[in-house]
Specification:
The chain is an alpha+beta fold and about 120 residues long. It has a single domain, classed as Dimeric alpha+beta barrel (Alpha-Beta Plaits, 2-Layer Sandwich). The protein is about 40% helix and about 25% strand. It is built from 5 helices and 5 strands, in the order E-H-H-E-E-H-H-E-E-H. Strands 1, 2, 3, 4 and 5 form a 5-stranded antiparallel beta sheet that branches. This is L-rhamnose mutarotase. It holds the Pfam family rhaM.
Length: about 120
């Protein structure tokens, strides 16, 4: 059974930079797509409101954040992409130095409440 994670990140609050960021995400580099899928991520969507980003990831049983982080650290193309994306990204105020996407806590589940 797939697990779902929600993550958040801000963008630099600049309309031109936000437009550039979105343009990159219209055609993400093939190596990045391969890396995402290879880590056990079966679906990923990113939404934007102003300069706030919200990501939903669905993952299979092989996925772990630790494994994904190690795979990313060992992949020069992923490191190139991440360095490029930092131009556009602005860490959330509660992020630790170097942190980007922060895992969100689920506080409501309609199906769970309806089944009670």
């Amino acid at each position: 059974m797939n697990k779902r994670f929600a993550l958040a990140l801000d963008l630099v609050n600049d309309e031109q930079l936000i437009a550039e960021y979105e343009k990159y995400h219209e055609a993400v580099w093939p190596e990045i797509l391969q890396s995402i899928a290879g880590a056990g991520i079966t679906q990923m969507e990113i939404y934007r409101l102003g300069n706030r980003l919200f990501m939903i990831m669905e993952v299979d049983d092989s996925f772990s954040f630790e494994r994904k982080g190690q795979m990313d650290a060992e992949n020069p193309k992923v490191q190139e992409w991440e360095k490029l994306m930092w131009k556009y990204q602005d860490a959330l105020p509660m992020a630790q130095p170097g942190e980007k996407w922060l895992l969100m806590d689920k506080i409501f589940d309609l199906k769970a409440q309806l089944s009670q």
